[in-house]
Structures
1.
Amino acid sequence: MEKFPTVLQQYLKHHSALTYSLVTLLTAGGERIFSAVVFSCPCSATWNLPYGLVFLLVPALALFLLGFMLSARTWRLLTGCCAPGARKGCGGGQRGALVCVHLSAAAALAPLTWVAVALLGGAFYECAASGSTAFARLLCQGRDPSCEAQLPLVPCNQAKLSDMQGLLKELKAQSQVLGWILIAAVILFILIFTSVTQCLSPVSFLQQKFWKIYLEQEQQIFKTQATEHATELAKENITCFFECSHPKECNTPSIKDWQQISSLYTFNPKDQYYSILHKYVNRKEKNLSIRSSEGDALVPVLGFVDSSGINSTAEI
């Protein structure tokens, strides 16, 4: 038990990397289970292609959409943006598009892992490619005339021609080559994107470290005080209900206040605020909107500001 605080501290320090690693491992494990237990190629010229593509791409699409749903930044952008009298648009043109690009890049980790592991396994690709007429013509060049008709039976080892198993090895080799190319491309993209965003960072490396520590502390204190305030308000209302009395005055932020601190963070070199709440409490005038000021900009490397919340993901 004495080591628990140290372990917790290390987890909080590296929680992003650990989360991405866990997502990757779970996705890879899920794909292996699907491939071994659920997937069964129909070995039909009509169904091989759609069946293989469904198992290869549909789970990837589902994981991609789930990545959006579990991002706190998605709900910061969307919540209340279509309500009558709310702020115009959902993110405001170029700004909203930039946030969507960042969200898409983060949400793409799990689906790309699924596709890469599936290609390395080869089963989905073999089934889909064996049902493609174009692939059949290409693979069967110079072979027996009945090769194209026999090709859909290859994944089930039902082909009658003796040299058809060589085609199965060729399809698996193609699948694995594509899988390694995809893995290399993703790693290269992450390296380039991270390097470019860090090079364009308006703050230093150590200031980013301090920034993340501040956000962790702000969210912990916010959750504690929000819980205390909500408990006090609930107790007062219940007491007044049973005693048939009027409640004492309890200061609670207005709808406008909540909307202000729920908006997306923008960086301004003139006033370096560490969160939208920090920016809100330091505004010069109480009626002044903090959503758009001259010089404000969305900076990719500072996306972690919006990603943090009372919980790391939206509660749905």
Note: Confidence is low (pLDDT under 50) at residues 1-15, 310-316.
2.
Amino acid sequence: MTKPVDSPVQAEPAAPEAVQVSAPQRPRSVKRTVLNYVALTKPRIIELLLITTVPTMFLAAGGFPPFLLILNTIIGGYLAAGGANVLNMFFDRDIDAKMKRTKNRPLVTGEISPRAAVIFGLVLSALSTVYLWVLVNAVSAMLALGAIVLYVVFYTLILKRRTSQNIVWGGVAGCMPVLIGWSSVTGTVSWTAFLLFLVIFFWTPPHYWPLAEKFTRDYERAGVPMLPVVSSRRNVAVQMIAHTVAMVACSLAIIPLAPTGPVYAVAAIAVGAWFLALIIRYAVRVFQGRTGRDLHPMGVFHASITYLTLLFVALALDPFLRF
């Protein structure tokens, strides 16, 4: 756009380039529009949620559940998580605009309008509930609806901007897929499913806080009180160790309760020991006063994803590899 006219000198005809910029933009391609709507659902996060859902179904079934049940649970879970993520992006668009990591999201760039995003999020949320109710069962549908409310209202609107423990309690929504997966097979929620819920609950802080450490300035600029922003690195490291110990303990408690076989037992012990050692090493670096690349928080972030993936892959394989 051209600058406002302040004097007769500036009142000259606009340059051809300026006229070209102010001309109407071409309509966006269908492909680009679809990709922007898909981006609103945060597909990379949903992939992680599905990694925990399907293995839980295998454990609940003691083998391979009906294929259509798996497919319908995945579709319904994707719709629910996608709807929640879209609404989260709508309410957080002011924060996203201030952060380098999120400034290119469709609602910030204007690729998708706020009104369109709200409609899209609400439609996905309603569709997920109906889909799961009709094609899976009522328990799974209600759990999915509860996860949406927890993420959008409890985490996004209430906790995120008010407390440094936002990701701890707000992470409850991210634990719901294991309950949905279990209930899709059994129609109920058992103590085994609750322990899997706790594994993800305690996993979330040591998974997310390193990311918040990496982007501390972003969160400061946006006014989001993530724990690494408002507390000392030492306190964060101590809390990460505590959460990891609780996470590993819950993963091991599943062994006699499920009951599981040797595949899951060995994997839970091995990957639990590996990840705990990694967190302790991270804490040692913190206490040594290391920062930035020497601290390497993103290494912990990516390792946490590897831990959860390996644990749940072992959970999925366990029913088929009993010796």
Note: The radius of gyration is 23 Å.
3.
Amino acid sequence: MSGRSVLVVAHTGRPEACRSAALVIERLSKAGIEVRVLDEEAPDLHCSGVQVVPVSAAAAEDAELVMVLGGDGTILRAADLARASGTPMLGVNLGHVGFLAEAERDDLTSTVERVVERRYHVEERMTIDVIVHRNGEVAATTWALNEATVEKAERERMLEVVVEIDGRPLSHWGCDGVVCATPTGSTAYAFSAGGPVVWPEVEAMLVVPISAHALFARPMAVSPRSVVAIEVLPDTPRAVLWCDGRRTVGLPPGARVEVRHGAIPVKLARLHRTPFTDRLVTKFGLPVTGWRGRARPGAGDAGGPAGG
């Protein structure tokens, strides 16, 4: 063995993901790389010669990579393990849009080759830390890579909240909820709620109201040093906090949720230095017909010297 280790996480509910995981495990093992799989996934993967590890913060400890086969939901699940150990994640998209993934299913063989040859780079993504207060006491602490959302828990009634930025009240909203998102999460729930797309290298937090009945209820981008607080008013129905659509905390009337820049980033392994603009065009199928690009010297276009 080379002393290298990779944790493979798969959406085992999809036969395609299990087949892809088996291929990845086989090729990594042949290259002398130790492969770990989670104990809850091992029975579905039917792979021998792997190290089976429990689902815990130590699952990816000292591993070189966490390779994830599935959609963004699977990547967010794996982020719980990767963040705890500071291990980069490399996602192979087997879902739909797959914004967090770096490779597509058709690139699986070349993706494994690049991992074996260490031909990838690592970038850090901002996270958010979330604290829930009840009756003046800290009731829960959690985090998110994409977003933290305070939502109404009862469909038939509107949620009443006051939003605070840096210790000052901003507005009282009757709404379905409020999304606090990272730049990474700007293409997820916040996007669906009408928020802007933010390039990943921009350090900011988004505050996006959901179906708010208010004159001032626009999406906002605040400083990464800001603290955003959402207070559930005492006379409102109960609410619920969702982080990345995975971790949930009940919010009784009077609860307070504070959101700030995360202390620990998530690391993503990248195979290509593709501009984020190109990623948007590809993932959303954006029309770019008619684009001519910048003028080239000698091309006769305005802004460049005429050809002779």
Note: Residues 300-308 have pLDDT under 50 and may be disordered.
4.
Amino acid sequence: MGEPVNVGVVGCGVIFAQYGQTIERLPGLRLTAVADLDLERAREAVRPYPGVEVLSVAELMADPRIDVVLNLTIPAAHAEVALLAIAAGKDVYCEKPLAANAVDAARVLRAAADAGVRVGCAPDTVLGVGTQTARKAIDDGLIGRPVAATATMMTPGHEMWHPNPDFYYAPGGGPLLDMGPYYITSLITLLGPVTTVVGAAGRTRDKRVIASGPRRGEEIPVTIDTHVTGVLVHASGAMSTLVMSFDGAATTAPKIEVHGEQGSLSVPDPNHFDGPVMLAKVDERSWEPLPVSAGYLEAGRGVGLADFAATPAGREPRAGGTLAYHVLEVMESLLSAAHSGTAVTLTSTCERPLPVALQPAG
């Protein structure tokens, strides 16, 4: 088995607790140190984990014990922190998206290649039994040749629950860049890379009101598109219709459906690791659940980091930087297509990530 990989975390915000709980129970990972601009927040975050040190960012990067830096900062800081880790000779695994824009993401990948270190990136929810069971159904030919997919996320906005939602409504945020990585990564896992996109986008209002926490009632500015829709043309020829919105109260639309010549799949929420996968065959037309057949069982946020750390040298990790860059370019291209009114051809591609056989997360 070997020694666990020592993890140093930069950023101890809301998502840290989920990663910390997963790292704690996976034998291949060891939470070693954390850093945050707010040292008191960092100390509070590691209270459940005795022995984990609180360091400055510079100290964490210089610490020879740290094998991989887990970058949980806000999207605007992802590239800066990743480049610091790379300069220190450490692998880095980022919370999504890989960077606030594709230019910065490309800088990260170039720097990593030059330094001989690896880059990984969330989301890792696609490695759970939900998306992976659907992936196996497609690979096993249960729906025949895939021809289309739909993906829908509709909420009233994160200011309804997040105490500090400002960055969701600033460049690098919005429903597409925030939630799109889950859906687009899942679509690429199911159907392969994207070649061309078309789209439309807009926003309903220029201000939002925080609905919870100590800043309840405070207005924040909105400078990004809060409703985005588009069509992704995959290299396989399949077409995915995508709707990402912070402008609706709710929806009964399935999170993801994939349609083939011989049947259709209902795929669970890509923001979760599990959930029922339903199959409807052309000759039956009734939905039936599929047994869990692939993916990491009882997975949590951070299983992608463990998968990344266990990936042999020379092989692209399932939650790898190349995939994350392609997802980011898909999103940027969709926004560009929405604003220009023309189709945009992508410059990047990626391999369809390797499937995950049914196995325990730990």
Note: The first strand starts at residue 5 and ends at 10.
